[in-house]
Amino acid sequence: MKLIAAILLVTGGTCAFAQPKTPAKLDKEGHPWWQHAVFYEIYPRSFADTNGDGLGDLNGITAHMDYLRKLGVDAIWITPCFPSPQVDFGYDVADYTNIEPMYGTLADFDRLVQQGRKRQIRVVLDFVVNHSSDQHPWFLKSKASRQSEYRDWYIWRDGKPRDPNAPPLPGIATDPNAPAGEDPPNNWTSLFGGPAWRYDPGTRQWYYHYFDPAQPDLNWRNPRVHDAMFNVVRFWFDRGVAGFRLDAVDTLFEDPQLRDNPPFYPPNELDAAGNPLPGAVPPKDPYGMPLQRRIYNDNLPENHVVLQQLRQVADQYGAVLIGETWTENIAQLKQYYGQGAAAEIQLPMDFLFANVNRLSAPEFRRQVGLVESSGGWPVYLFSNHDITRAYNRYGGQQPSDQVAKLLAALLLTLRGTPILYYGEEIGMENRDPVSREEVRDPIGIRGWPLEKGRDGERTPMQWTAGANAGFTSGKPWLPIAANYQTHNVEAEEQDANSVLNFYRAAIRLRHRDPALVEGAYVALNQDDPNVMAYLRQYRGRAVLVALNMSSEPQTVRFDLARQGYGAKSRLHELLSSNAAAQQKLSEVSLQPYGVFIGEVLR
Ligand code: GLC
Ligand code: CA
């Protein structure tokens, strides 16, 4: 969601595997498993196809469990694999307690969990809490009549008569099925383009959808919806699922009065009091609708009540909740963590990094500092199925493996839980569609060419240099990214200098060195415009991480007198790339995008 984002804007071995219904064992330091785990996001449609239909499946994931173990992954998060018409590729769920037939069966899923467990890999699912598919039986019944007992499971309202003096609506805002002269209940716009309301000619009312019209919002104010969704969670926890990633959790509740959202103006169009300057016009989203501040349908206080209840259920199972939380500031992030009896999400994702689109030591340092200041346990990710892959976002015009390794080093040495995105570990690149005909993502179809959609970051996993990168024996549902002949698992396993082998080494290091998991984060040389550096300090030991985020060689000097290290202190290399193995505190040399990780010796 490139434009939208721009506008809005771990350890195996030591911890015992929790069985369902038993709270997770704490490790020696008293930390739960998810603080030590390296997570790996799998987009099942694109990971591995075992039946030749061009779409990945659950058996494909199971077949590569050894690959994941060797990589060092402790938990996989699988994006929605439930029965779905696939309008939004699974984020439109038609049955919350079953497996999409094209992905396999419940028995395949059980086998996947079991094979994961054998290798100490936990399975986390994606819980689409805000909306279901318009083909879900709940919605079909809700839509059947105004008197249906399911009517109130979704958000239905009468339209409004159009003001005859209002300017004509942009084409995208016109619902062809709505009676002439009738407008939606309010001005809310959908994140996926157009109004957030769709007219149903059968019952002559409008239903609300924050995302695609095929994704009607559930009415969380209805206790029966609440109970049904909590039963879903228990169903999967009882089946051995170790947690959920909560999809679009900011948008669970809407203003009961459905008040209009105010327009959004960029800061330079506001006066000192925050009012728009004369003549200011709100900019448009890529679909042609004026931008608005979603104060009445995003991040309502009621969300937090549900999250606290959900956390209590998760705690009964020792499970983790990962939040797709698009926080705008640290106060919002803090709220999602909650506290004590009002604890909420253990791992609320901080998407501030999604809005940082170039490698910049000051900018990265600032984001990490902000997250550190929240007081919670951070979670970091640089890529996912909604944002341009970091390989390209930070690699610029000429993405390089050197940058990929630098990002790996950062992700795996920060204090917090890292989440990798499939293919990131081999330096997979983005491949945006080249024409509208090629686009599969609904937002790309609606937003072309301003919004090209998210196909680019969802291309098939590159296993080999052979046909279809070894992803399928059939026709892949999306084209393979161009770099598959050099960047694939088979080739990179043979190459000691590959991105894959660097990821493996960095994960291994994280698993072995407690300073990288437990250690305090201490930013160093905070004025350096090129090199981001920090210590991870733990029990009298310190590991130094220096990352050259520039395309020029850099030499840096560290004064660690305050940390108790003298001028003679040496550095014992733990892992490096594009940097000499022998380095002194007084002179650390890094080649372009070079990485040096070393223990500081007294
Ligand atoms: C989240 C998902 C995205 C999906 C949307 C609607 O943002 O990550 O892929 O389209 O929710 O479910
Ligand atoms: Ca909602």
What keyword list fits this structure?
16 helices, 24% helix, alpha/beta, TIM Barrel, binds calcium ion, single chain, seven-stranded antiparallel beta sheet, 2 domains, Immunoglobulin-like, 22 strands
Q: Specify the CATH class of the largest domain.
A: Alpha Beta
The name CATH uses for the topology of the largest domain is TIM Barrel
Across the major sheet, the strand order is 13-10-9-3-2-1-15-14
As residue ranges, the low-confidence spans are: 1-24
| Integer count of domains | 2
| Mean pLDDT, all residues | 93
User: Considering DSSP H and I runs of 4 or more, what fraction of the residues is helical?
Assistant: 10-25%
Global outline:
globular
Largest sheet: 8 strands, parallel
- Classified in CATH, the superfamily of the largest domain is Glycosidases
Nearest-angstrom radius of gyration?
25 Å
Tell me what portion of residues adopts beta-strand conformation.
15-25%
Number of helical segments? Answer: 16
Q: What structural class is derived from the secondary structure elements?
A: alpha/beta
Distance between the amino and carboxyl termini: 48 Å
CATH architecture of the largest domain: Alpha-Beta Barrel
The small-molecule ligands in this entry are: alpha-D-glucopyranose, calcium ion
Strand element count: 22
Explain the overall architecture.
The protein is globular and about 80 Å long. The strands form five sheets. Strands 13-10-9-3-2-1-15-14 form an eight-stranded parallel β-sheet. It has helices at 2-7, 33-36, 58-63, 65-71, 106-118, 137-144, 223-238, 302-316, 330-337, 361-373, 390-393, 401-413, 442-447, 489-494, 499-512, 514-518; strands at 39-42, 75-78, 122-128, 156-157, 160-161, 182-183, 197-200, 205-208, 243-247, 320-323, 338-339, 342-343, 347-348, 379-380, 417-421, 520-524, 531-538, 541-548, 554-556, 570-579, 583-584, 588-601. The chain folds into two domains: 2-133 and 223-253 and 303-502, TIM Barrel, CATH 3.20.20; 519-601, Immunoglobulin-like. It starts with a helix and ends with a strand. The longest helix is centred in the middle third of the chain and has 16 residues, at 223-238. It is of the alpha/beta class and 602 residues long. The structure holds alpha-D-glucopyranose (GLC) and calcium ion (CA). Alpha-D-glucopyranose (GLC) is lined by residues 88, 91, 128, 211, 247-248, 324, 385-386.
